[in-house]
């Protein structure tokens, strides 16, 4: 198995583990620019928006500097 294949399998495994906790947590996948590319879990109860509608938003807008 190549190093690249191993990394891809590890990445996929980590994503599935994250999904196991997504029903009670707020899970965000963010790109290098800080934009949300995936959201799951308690997004609506924390932001008032469905997870799919968070795509493209900057993740920092959902957190206070004072928290």
Can you walk me through this structure?
The protein is an alpha+beta fold. Helix content is 36%, strand content 16%. The chain is built from two helices and two strands. It has helices at 3-21, 43-47, and strands spanning 26-30, 36-41. The protein has a two-stranded antiparallel sheet. A hairpin with a 5-residue loop joins strand 1 (26-30) and strand 2 (36-41).
Query: Measured on Cα atoms, how large is the radius of gyration?
Result: 14 Å
Please provide the count of β strands. 2
Number of helices: 2
What letter string, H or E per element, gives the SSE order?
Answer: HEEH
Helix content estimate: 25-40%
Summary tags:
alpha+beta; two-stranded antiparallel ribbon; 36% helix; 16% strand; 2 strands; 67 residues; elongated
Provide a concise account of the structure shown.
The protein is α+β, with helices and mostly antiparallel strands and 67 residues long. 36% of the residues lie in helices and 16% in strands.
């Amino acid at each position: 198995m190549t190093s690249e294949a191993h990394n891809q399998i590890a990445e996929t495994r980590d994503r599935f583990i994250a999904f196991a906790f997504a029903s009670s947590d707020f899970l965000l996948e963010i790109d290098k620019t800080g934009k949300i590319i995936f959201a799951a879990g308690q997004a609506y109860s924390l932001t008032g928006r469905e997870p799919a509608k968070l795509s493209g938003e900057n993740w920092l807008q959902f957190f206070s500097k004072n928290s």
